[in-house]
């Protein structure tokens, strides 16, 4: 079984980004304004962190925007090489973003609430570079678009992996204690971790090492 790539999310400083990379992260996540949840930082800070991330490590901009012009403008302000679209983005908007930003990877988040996640992933697949499965709830009056620390139904996530051909990232409640089970159950391309490697909101290098240490056993 291949060991998945790991994205460390909710990066708040250049020092946290450096620690994540030292620990083995293939990508770092930088959270812009969200309707709820932990981790958002100012776009100016995101733009300052991005150049400090070494080549070969992806920089994901987490955005709650759904209009093409707003998404494109955010990417251009921050310089991230990957857009993590945390809310459902209409197909025409995805096409417009692709046309405006041909070198930027698009990752559509699908929140796994029920079996409808499989159909959502299939619909997005032709328009994006990857799918990311998370445990938010965009159906609430104040949308939850990630950062919940909750584990969703990994059986549904496995069905998504089997249903699409693009890479699938798994997020939601991942910790050093359950990451091996997550990999064995879902077989994702990548893992996306935020709260599971933090203590009092700060990146905990001991937890980070424990997470990566658990991966070979998967």
Characterization of this structure:
The protein has 218 residues and is an alpha/beta fold. The chain has one domain (5-217): TIM Barrel (Alpha-Beta Barrel). Helix content is 34%, strand content 20%. It contains 8 helices and 10 strands. α2 (43-49) links the parallel β2 (27-31) and β3. The longest helix has 11 residues, at 68-78.
What key attributes describe this structure?
single chain; alpha/beta; TIM Barrel; eight-stranded parallel barrel; two-stranded antiparallel sheet; 8 helices; 10 strands; 20% strand
Q: What's the count of strands?
A: 10
Order of helices and strands: EHEHEHEHEHEHEHEEEH
CATH topology: TIM Barrel
Mean pLDDT: 94
Q: In which range does the helix fraction lie? A: 25-40%
CATH-wise, what's the superfamily?
Answer: Aldolase class I
CATH architecture: Alpha-Beta Barrel
β content, as a range?
A: 15-25%
Q: Give the tally of structural domains.
A: 1
Intertermini distance: 8 Å
Strand order of the largest sheet: 1-2-3-4-5-6-7-8
Tell me the overall shape: globular
Q: Regarding CATH, which class?
A: Alpha Beta
Q: What profile does the largest beta sheet have?
A: 8 strands, parallel, barrel
Cα Rg = 16 Å
Sheet/helix structural class: alpha/beta
Runs in which pLDDT lies below 50 for 5 or more consecutive residues are none
Count of discrete alpha- or pi-helical segments spanning 4 or more residues: 8
């Amino acid at each position: 079984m291949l060991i998945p790539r790991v994205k460390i999310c909710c990066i708040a400083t250049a020092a946290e980004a450096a620690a994540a990379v030292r620990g083995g992260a293939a990508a770092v996540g930088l959270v812009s304004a969200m309707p709820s949840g932990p981790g958002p930082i100012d776009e100016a800070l995101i733009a300052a962190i991005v150049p400090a991330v070494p080549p070969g490590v992806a920089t994901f901009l987490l955005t709650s925007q759904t209009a093409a012009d707003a998404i494109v403008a955010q990417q251009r302000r921050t310089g991230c090489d990957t857009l993590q679209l945390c809310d459902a983005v209409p197909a025409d908007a995805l096409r417009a973003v692709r046309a405006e930003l041909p070198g930027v990877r698009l990752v559509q988040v699908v929140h796994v609430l029920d079996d409808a996640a499989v159909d959502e992933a299939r619909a997005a697949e032709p328009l994006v570079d990857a799918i990311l499965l998370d445990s938010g709830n965009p159906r609430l009056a104040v949308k939850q678009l990630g950062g919940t620390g909750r584990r969703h139904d990994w059986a549904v996530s496995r069905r998504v992996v089997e249903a699409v051909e693009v890479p699938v990232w798994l997020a939601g409640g991942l910790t050093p204690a359950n990451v091996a089970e997550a990999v064995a159950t879902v077989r994702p391309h990548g893992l996306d971790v935020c709260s599971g490697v933090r203590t009092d909101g700060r990146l905990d290098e001991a937890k980070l090492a424990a997470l990566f240490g658990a991966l070979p056993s998967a």
